[in-house]
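Lecture notes, part 5. Sequence design as translation. It can be helpful to think of inverse folding as translation between two languages: the language of shapes and the language of residues. The source text, in structure tokens, appears below.
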């Protein structure tokens, strides 16, 4: 059974009796089916009697009010039923004697004292302030002053109490209910008529007033309890004891209730009453807690305050658990929704555990954020579901308290608001700790990298760690990205957050992080250079120390050996000195940057190496002089050998014969430039060799010196000559190289064009179809249309060749004879082509003209022959034959043949081997002769067919004459009106058939006239006038018939109708005559009896 509208559905009593059956477990009699008002009264009376038997007092509740659906009466009745069956008459003292009273639990106390608590709250809110006595929730509130006073306590600006005292009760109540609904969010559960009666229903009024208590608990706070004491310590202690006692005596017992919800409405009202008490006492607790946390408490410290703090947290927690239990106990999906809201509130109020490590903190926040997103994926579906649930009435057969639904709505709204805020906060805090982890890790790494260093492996390990952390880990890039993400998340978090302290905290955090990172990043960037420099010094130091140690040990042994061995050994003395310098520089740097005892070890090694090296330097002074002289001799010999080798190569290059080809010349130029680039180095080596030789003058004999200097002078003269000739040769080769390239490319293009032209000229033929011939001619024209361009190209290349010829004296080793022959050959070929092409091109033009003329004539002759064979238009055929034979055709064809004959003979005179044009001319002459023979044959055939044409003409004339006579006869007969109907119809049929062929007769008339004129022109018949008159007479008669054909057709239709009418009249007359005769016969009387 589903209740849609309580006030309407309860009228027939069926719903009420069903409710009582369920609550009591007893079977009650009820009327069912199609009920009328009398049945309503019966059911309602049964229900009220049942309640009275249960000793439930029903004040101002009667059957007629319920049957009329009065809201205040119905609500009062339902309230009484709920209270009775929920608390088992606890609120009503037992009047029967001898009945043992059960112990009253804390929850029962709350229920019993709910009215007292509500009265106490109301008195605290208005009685002491406005002097309005409220002793009950009935008559005390009838004038409406109390309702307006409660509103004035909460919002003084909404009510003018002086004005209220002057107004009527109904106006005051209506005004209070409207203002509370519009401005304070208090649902309008009552109407003024429900209160302004002799005995208002207290339960309904209590339900309405309880909304003020729930929403504005502080309005009814007893100011006497909060009176400030002059002794702050005593006041704090009194508040502490009062709260702790309340928890231990009432709150703790209530909050241990874990039984399932039996009466949702009653338990929710119990929850509201307890929650109001918690909120009222919460003001005292939070003020005391604020003092303790800020250190302003006189009596309590954090430790001594802890018992009350834990107790209060438990009260708040259990109060919320109570509300969660109510939500989760709702039926069906609504209960699951309530449980989801419970979990959502718990998640939103969950505080994150603080961890010392920023990285661990970031990981923890990331997990919490993921869990948050996973859980709140259901937020939108839950929201949609709740929007579809009615805010009042039953859900799946269970009555849901409207205040509880309002509470769920408020909690869902709060969850929907706080969930995105928490998600943005978690996103910000996660990336905040990631950023802090970057910074802290970087600072810790920096401390490791900037200490005094150890040996090379340890420093290399530090550098590897640095590169792995900074470069491989993309430290700066990742930090910047994390910082930007953190900044965006912070902006998103604070965008809809008006908490200035939170914003200031964020700004301070970013300022601190920026300052620390700026300092750390600068130092980190300098660390790599320092580490690399230390490693480089270690490498130089170790390598140089090893080399010096080995060399010093060898030196002590070599000093006792021969001079050659000493000279060989001390050849690398300069390198050894460089190593000694490196050892000292790198060693001193390492002493400053390494830790002990590494620095002391380096100092000891340097002292030992420097001492031994100094001793060695002092012992080498004598050997040095001998070593210098020997080195000078060797350098002089090497310098002479090198100079001789280079001069020999340069002279051979200058004398080499080079083919006149672009690629070869380019390679030759590269070789010249290579030697040219070596000239400064060779000149410097020559000077060095000369200086070395001069330094040996004092150490060598005079003959040796003279020979050495003479050799140097000869080589110097050759070098000076080559130094001058090589750049000149390079200049000339560079000058001629572009011309050679241009000649090669141009001659190649010319050669290709000439080859194509010769191939085309050799392949000249008119075999195949006319289209193929025209394609070859067109290709011929395209190729040889370039002759002017090719001539200009040849002239240009000849000019280039002349420039190359002028360079021959300066390029004696360049072989230009191959180029000479090729240029001469191409010039000859081009001249030959230039003579032949015009002849053949002109022949092609005459040939194309001739072929077009002959082909048209052949087609015309073929068509004439076909017409003559079919004997059509003989005269026209003969005229066309004469036109072909006597027109410009004969003259033009002969002229073309004469031109082709002349051109073929001219080509043979120029080149007796080329008889292509002569052969072509022969073919065309033979074709012309065949064409003439065909023309004569056609003319002869046309003359032979003339008598046959006369015969055909007379046949057609006879047929035409018969047709005209027939038409004239049919017109005469149709125009006469004495034909019978059958005759008329037959004649009309013939006439209509003749009309269909009238166009053919007209064509025959035109054919006869046309052919007669042609035959008269080619015939010597003297009877021309008779033939013309005969045909003219027939044509005139035929033309006279044509205008009357349509008229005759129309008249024949009228005549046909007249004939039909005539036949009908005649038939009617015959019938009438027959009837008259029959009647006459009946008039004769056979006897007296008939008379």
């Amino acid at each position: 059974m589903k209740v849609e509208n309580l006030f309407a559905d309860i009228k027939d009593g069926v719903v009420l009796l069903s409710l009582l059956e369920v609550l009591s477990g007893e079977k009650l009699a009820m009327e069912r089916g199609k009920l009328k008002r009398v049945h309503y009264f019966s059911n309602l009376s049964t229900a009220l009697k049942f309640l009275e038997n249960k000793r439930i007092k029903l004040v101002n509740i009667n059957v007629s009010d319920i049957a009329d659906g009065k809201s205040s009466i119905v609500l009062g009745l339902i309230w009484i039923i709920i209270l009775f069956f929920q608390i088992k008459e606890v609120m009503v003292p037992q009047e029967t004697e001898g009945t043992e009273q059960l112990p009253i639990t804390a929850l029962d106390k709350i229920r019993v004292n709910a009215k007292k608590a509500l009265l106490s709250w109301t008195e605290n809110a208005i009685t002491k302030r406005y002097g309005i006595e409220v002793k009950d929730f009935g008559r005390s509130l009838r004038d409406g002053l109390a309702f307006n006073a409660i509103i004035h306590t909460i919002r003084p600006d909404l009510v003018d109490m002086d004005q209220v005292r002057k107004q009527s009760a109904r106006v005051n109540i209506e005004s209070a209910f409207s203002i509370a609904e519009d401005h304070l969010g208090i649902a309008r559960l009552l109407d003024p008529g429900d209160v302004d009666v002799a005995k208002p229903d207290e339960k309904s009024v209590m339900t309405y007033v309880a909304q003020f208590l729930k929403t504005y608990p502080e309005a009814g706070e007893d100011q006497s309890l909060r009176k400030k004491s002059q002794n702050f310590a005593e006041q704090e202690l009194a508040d502490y004891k009062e709260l702790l006692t309340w928890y231990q005596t009432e709150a703790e017992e209530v909050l241990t209730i874990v039984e399932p919800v039996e009466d949702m409405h009653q338990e929710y009202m119990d929850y509201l009453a307890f929650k109001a008490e918690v909120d009222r006492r919460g003001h005292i607790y939070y003020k005391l807690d604020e003092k303790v946390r800020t250190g302003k408490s006189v009596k309590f410290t954090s430790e001594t305050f802890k018992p009350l703090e834990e107790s209060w947290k438990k009260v708040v927690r259990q109060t919320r658990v109570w509300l969660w239990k109510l939500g989760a106990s709702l039926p069906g999906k609504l209960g699951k929704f309530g449980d989801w809201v419970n979990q959502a509130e718990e998640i939103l109020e969950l505080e994150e555990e603080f961890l010392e490590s920023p990285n661990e903190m970031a990981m923890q926040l990331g997990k919490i954020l993921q869990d948050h997103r996973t859980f709140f994926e259901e937020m939108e579906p839950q929201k949609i579901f709740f929007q579809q649930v009615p805010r009042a009435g039953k859900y799946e057969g269970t009555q849901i308290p409207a205040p509880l639904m309002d509470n769920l709505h408020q909690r869902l709204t709060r969850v929907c608001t706080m969930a995105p805020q928490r998600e943005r906060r978690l996103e910000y805090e996660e990336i905040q700790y990631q950023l802090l982890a970057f910074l802290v890790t970087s600072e810790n790494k920096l401390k490791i990298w900037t200490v005094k260093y150890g040996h090379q492996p340890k420093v290399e390990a530090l550098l590897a760690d640095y590169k792995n952390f900074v470069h491989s880990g993309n430290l700066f890039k990742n930090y910047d990205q994390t910082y930007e993400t953190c900044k965006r998340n912070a902006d998103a978090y604070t965008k809809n957050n008006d908490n200035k302290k939170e914003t200031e905290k964020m700004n301070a955090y970013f300022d601190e992080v920026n300052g620390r990172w700026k300092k750390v990043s600068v130092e980190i960037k300098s660390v790599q250079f320092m580490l690399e420099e230390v490693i480089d010094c270690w490498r130089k130091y170790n390598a140089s120390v090893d080399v010096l140690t080995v060399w010093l040990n060898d030196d002590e042994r070599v000093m006792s050996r021969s001079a050659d061995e000493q000279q060989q050994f001390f050849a690398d003395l300069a390198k050894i000195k460089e190593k000694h310098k490196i050892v000292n520089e790198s060693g001193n740097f390492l002493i400053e940057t390494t830790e002990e005892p590494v620095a002391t070890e380096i100092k000891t090694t340097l002292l030992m190496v420097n001492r031994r090296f100094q001793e060695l330097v002092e012992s080498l002074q004598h050997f040095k002089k001998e070593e210098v002289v020997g080195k000078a001799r060797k350098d002089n010999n090497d310098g002479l050998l090198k100079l001789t080798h280079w001069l020999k190569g340069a002279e051979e290059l200058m004398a080499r014969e080079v083919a006149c080809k672009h690629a070869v010349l380019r390679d030759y130029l590269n070789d010249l430039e290579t030697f040219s680039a070596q000239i400064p180095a060779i000149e410097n080596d020559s000077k060095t060799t000369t200086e070395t030789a001069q330094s040996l003058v004092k150490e060598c004999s005079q003959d040796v010196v003279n020979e050495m200097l003479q050799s140097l002078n000869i080589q110097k003269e050759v070098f000076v000559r080559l130094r001058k000739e090589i750049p000149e040769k390079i200049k000339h080769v560079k000058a001629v190289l572009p011309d050679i390239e241009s000649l090669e490319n141009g001659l190649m293009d010319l050669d290709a064009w000439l080859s194509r032209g010769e191939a085309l000229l050799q392949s000249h033929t008119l075999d195949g179809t006319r289209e193929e011939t025209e394609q070859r001619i067109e290709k011929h024209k395209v190729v040889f249309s370039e002759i002017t361009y090719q001539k200009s190209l040849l002239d240009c290349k000849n000019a280039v060749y002349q420039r190359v010829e002028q360079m021959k004296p300066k390029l004696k080793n360049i072989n230009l004879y191959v180029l000479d022959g090729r240029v001469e050959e191409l010039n000859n070929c081009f001249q030959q082509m230039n003579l032949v092409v015009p002849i053949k091109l002109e022949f092609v033009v005459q040939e194309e003209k001739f072929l077009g003329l002959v082909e048209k004539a052949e087609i015309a002759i073929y068509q004439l022959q076909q017409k003559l064979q079919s004997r059509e238009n003989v005269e026209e055929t003969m005229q066309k034959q004469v036109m072909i034979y006597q027109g410009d055709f004969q003259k033009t064809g002969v002229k073309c043949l004469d031109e082709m004959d002349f051109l073929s003979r001219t080509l043979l005179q120029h080149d007796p081997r080329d008889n292509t044009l002569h052969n072509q001319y022969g073919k065309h002459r033979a074709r012309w002769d065949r064409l003439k023979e065909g023309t004569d044959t056609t003319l002869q055939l046309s003359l032979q067919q003339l008598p046959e044409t006369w015969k055909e003409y007379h046949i057609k004339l006879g047929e035409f004459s018969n047709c005209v006579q027939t038409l004239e006869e049919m017109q005469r007969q149709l125009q006469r009106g004495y034909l019978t109907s059958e005759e008329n119809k037959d004649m009309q049929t013939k006439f209509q058939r003749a009309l269909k062929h009238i166009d053919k007769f007209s064509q025959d008339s035109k054919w006869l006239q046309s052919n007669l004129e042609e035959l008269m022109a080619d015939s010597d018949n003297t009877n021309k006038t008779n033939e013309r008159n005969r045909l003219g007479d027939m044509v005139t008669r035929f033309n006279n018939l044509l205008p009357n054909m349509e008229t005759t057709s129309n008249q024949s239709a009228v005549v046909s109708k007249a004939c039909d009418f005539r036949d009908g009249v005649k038939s009617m007359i015959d019938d009438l005559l027959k009837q008259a005769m029959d009647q006459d016969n009946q008039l004769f009387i056979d006897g007296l009896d008939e008379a």
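The translated text above is only one of many valid answers, since several sequences can fold into similar shapes. Confidence is low (pLDDT under 50) at residues 86-107, 225-230, 1083-1091.
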